[in-house]
C-alpha cells in the first residue's frame, strides 16, 4: 500500500480521543470502552484485534453512532474530517453514514432482508445517498456497484433474492452496498468470519483492491490476529475496553511488548508451527490449570518438540476403520419428486489407536455427516465402519450400547450442547446413569474426578450451564464425553466457536487428556490452522470425497492436491515470518 | 493511560504504542466466576416474577377465589337457594349486602357459591386441553413425518371450528344431562389444538439441539430423550398458554350458560345468573353487575398471571417492550 500521504496535512481523516462508551444495566452504567485513542488517515488500513468482549465492535459502532441497546458515548470525541461525530445530531449522522462512512456488517446471512430482491436493496442505498436519480440511472448504478463488488452477470442477479446467493456472494453485495457512495472510510466488522477460508481470501483481496483504487481508509475489526496482520498495516490490540498495544502490524507480531499481546500471539494457531507436544508431561503442572494460569498458554513453545509416540501404535489394530463409506440423502425438490444428494462419497480411512486424525473441509464437504455416521446417528447407505475390530452397521441393543460406551462425541456449539435445565453434575453423570454404572455415591465421585480432569472447580457441579462461559461449557462437554472412559472421542468443530486463548487452552487440555487416557481423536474442523497443532494425520474432504490424506507434516509441507494448497494458502497469516 | 497517542503526529510512520501494564492488568484465561448465584430458566423466571406486582396481585386474587370456591360457607351463612319472591330485585339489606335477584335469592351468596362452578369448569377444561395438547403436540413434533401429518391435520380440523360454536352444538345434543363435566368436555374438545401447536413448534426447536444429539450418542432411548430433555425444555410456553386459556374456558362456560345451552338453571353459576339478570338490566342493573364483576375479576386474574409468566419465561418478549 502507499506509504506517503500528501492529502490530509491539516489533520487526520479519523481521530478518536479518549472515547468512552457505557451501557446502562440494572447495576448502573457499565463501561465498555475506557479511553480509546487512535487516528486513521486516508488510504490507511487499520485492524482492531481482540477477543469477544474486548470492545472492538463497540468501537466500530461508536464511530457511526449505532451503539446497540442502552449503549451511549459517555466521554471523548470521534473527529471525522474535523467534525465531532459524538455530538452530531441524528440527521447529520444519517447524512454521514453510507455517504462518508461505509459499513460492512459481520453476518452476511442475516444482514440482507430476505423478502426484498438484491437489486431493491442496492437501489435503496443508492437512492438514500442521492447517488443517482431516475429509475434508469439508479438501476444502472446498482449494476455498476454489483459489478465492482465482483458479481458476474450483475444485471440478471439484481432480480434474485438473498437466499439464491451463497454466503460469499452476499458478503460481496454487502461490501458493494458499503462502498456504493465511495465513502472516505469503510468499517468492516468481522466481514469474513462466517465464510470459508478460500472464500474469505478472495473477498478480502477484492476489498483491498477496491479500497486501494479509491484511497478509502479501511477499519477492520477481527478476532484473528493472523488475518489482521496480513491485511492491515497498523494493528490495534484491544483488551477489556482498552487499547493495550498499537503500531505497525509486523512490528507488533514480531516484537509484542504487552503481556496480553504476547499471550495472544502465542495462542494463535495460524501462527504456530507444530503439533502440541503432549506425551510425557504430567497433567498437574501445566498451564491449563485455570486458577493459576495467569501466564497463558503457549502453543509454539509447547510444540517445539514432538514426541514420537506413533511408533508404538503402528503395529496395532486401528481404533477406527472406515471403508468405502457412502451416504446418500434424498432431497425433496417440491411435490413428490426427490433428488439424490451424495453427502459422503466412497470415503475410507483408518485411525491408529491413541492418535488424532483431523477431517478437514469447508462447509458442505460432508465432514460432519461422517461424524454422524460414525456415531450411529445416521445410517450409512453403503460401506462399513469398524470400531475396535467390530463392524457397527448391524449392532443392536446391548452391543450398540457397548459401542456407544467406547465412543463419545463433543459438539461445536458450547451453548447448545448442554441441556440448560440439567445442572453440571447431572449432565456429566448422565452417561453413567444411562449405562447403569455405579450407584449415586460412586457416580458423584466420578463427576468430581472428571471435573478435576478438565480443570473445573468441583463446586460447579451444582451450577447450571448458562452461568458458564463458552470455554467452560466445552470443558463440561468434554467431561461428559469422558465419563464412560471411552477409547474414542469424536470432536465435531469442538473448538471453532471459542476465543483464541480459550481455544488454545482447550486444545492443550485435549492433548493432555489424550496422553493420559490413551484416547483416539477424530477431530473434525474447517480450520486448518488448528489441525496443525492437534492432529497426527489429516484427511482433506471436498464435496463428499477425501481428496488428500497423509500425516500432518506431509500435508502442510508437501500438499499434493491443488485444493489442499489453496486451503493452506488461505490460512490468514500463514505467509508471515515470525520472529522465532 | 499514557499521554502518548498511537499514530499521533502528521507523519504516517505509526509508532509502536504499548499501554502501561500496571493500568491494563491481564486476568487469568476463562476463570470461573463463582460469585454469581445458581441460575437456570426456572430460577431466573422466579427471580423475575418476584419483582412483578402484577404477578403477586393476580396470584393472591386467584388463591382467594380458589379458597372461596372450596369453602364458600366461610364467607356467607345465607343459603343461596333460600329464595323469597317477596324480595324480588330488592336492594341491599342487613345481611344481604348486594341485594336480591328477581327470584328473591341473595346475590352475594349466589356469587360466593357460584365460584366453584366456574373454577371447576376452567380447571377440567385445561386438564383436558393440556393432556391432549401435550400428548399430540409432543408426538407430532418429536416423531415428525407421518405421525406429524396425521396429528397436525386432525388438530387443524378441530382448530377450524370455533369452539364456542362447537360447544353450542354439543350442548344442544346433550340437552338432557348437562353438567359440569359435559360442558367442560364440550369446550375442551375443541380447544386443545392451540396447546398442541405451541408445544409442537417448541419440540421441533428443541429436538435439534446438540444436547439431544449428545444424549442420543450416549445411548439414551427415544422416549428417554423426549421425557428427560425435550419436554422439560419445551413446556414453558405451554404453561403460559394454559394459564391464559383457563380464563378463556371460564368465559366460555359463562357464554354457554348465558346462551341457555350451558349448565341447567338450578346449577349455581355466574353465567346462569348473568343470563337471568339480562331481562332486568335497565331497572335493576346490580343483579347483572355483581356476578359480572366476579367473572371479570377471575378471568382477568388468570390472564394477568399468564402475561406475567410469559414475560418471565420468555426474555425475548421482555426485551421487545
Automatic annotation (TrEMBL), chain A:
Entry annotated with the keyword Disulfide bond: no
CDD domains from the UniProt entry: ABC_NikE_OppD_transporters
Annotated keywords: ATP-binding, Nucleotide-binding, Transport
Pfam families hit by this protein: ABC_tran, oligo_HPY
An example molecular function term from Gene Ontology annotations: ATP hydrolysis activity
Membrane spanning stretches: none
Stretches assigned to coiled coil: none
Family: Belongs to the ABC transporter superfamily.
Protein name stated in the entry: ABC transporter ATP-binding protein
Organism of provenance: Amnibacterium flavum
Automatic annotation (TrEMBL), chain B:
TM regions (residue ranges): 55-75, 119-145, 157-174, 180-199, 230-250, 288-306
Annotated GO biological process: transmembrane transport
Statement: the UniProt record of this protein carries the keyword Transmembrane helix: yes
Main location class: membrane
One cellular-component annotation, GO: plasma membrane
Membrane topology term: Multi-pass membrane protein
Superkingdom in the source lineage: Bacteria
Keyword terms: Cell membrane, Membrane, Transmembrane, Transmembrane helix, Transport
Coiled-coil ranges from the UniProt annotation: none
Subcellular location: Cell membrane
Family indicated by similarity: Belongs to the binding-protein-dependent transport system permease family.
Protein name (database record): Peptide ABC transporter permease
Organism: Amnibacterium flavum
